[in-house]
Amino acid sequence: MYAFEYHRPATVKEAASLLRKNANAKVLAGGQSLIPTLKLRLARPTALIDLGDIDELRGIALEGAVLSIGATARHAEVAASKDVMIGIPALAKLADGIGDRQVRNQGTLGGALANNDPAADYPAAVLGLGATIHTNKREIGADRFFTGMYETALKPGEIVTRVTFPLPKRAAYVKFRNPASRYAIVGVFLSEGAGNVRVAIAGAANCVFRATEMEKRLTEKFAPEAVAKVRVPADRLNSDIHASAEYRSHLITVMAQRAVAAALSGK
User: Fold this and answer.
1) Of 46, 137, 205, 221, which has the maximum CB count within 10 A?
2) Is residue 144 within 8 Å of 123, Cβ to Cβ?
3) pTM over 0.70
């Protein structure tokens, strides 16, 4: 580690002001990705701006046909929330499967989205549900938010404040996880809404993406067999020590069928 300034603002406005004054500052939410990065000296900010005291970034609420979750909601809070379990049970299940207990009790929704790890679970849920990311400056649709590996549409000085999820008719998330880290080697989040289906894939490529051919087939017939022969080309996917691109292509189809079955069964 090395020397840096530490700030703990009480409002989003104060946090944004500190960001403007410190061009090389980093925002700290749960710290489950940032702290290891600092320890490895892969990031050397001049200041850390801790969002932990900002009340307006907290809270989970089911408001009509929309589920609203504050950016600093912990994964464990999302998993245990009655509003989430009533509105989008698949999202509660996803949150309960992230990392281990320490990660779930420290990691936050906003931090996971801003970090945009290719194998993280929340980006798949946000994209698969067509959620909206709210910041201190604007609203960003899920289809425009994730732009590349560890990259998002967030601009300098922009802070995620809340995410709103439209309630689906049904949804499910299934992942083939790394047994050590629990990151998704392949994860599939799908939802069925008013006349359309969204399918988001995590872990397989450099960034979460939508499987449009699967969406088309499932819109026509929402059943596992509808995607049994759909393959995402391997040349779009990652190969590493955990799985080849060809194996990930196979896993996407398998996980998608399981996700459809889970959505239909309500499990």
Assistant:
1) 205
2) no
3) yes
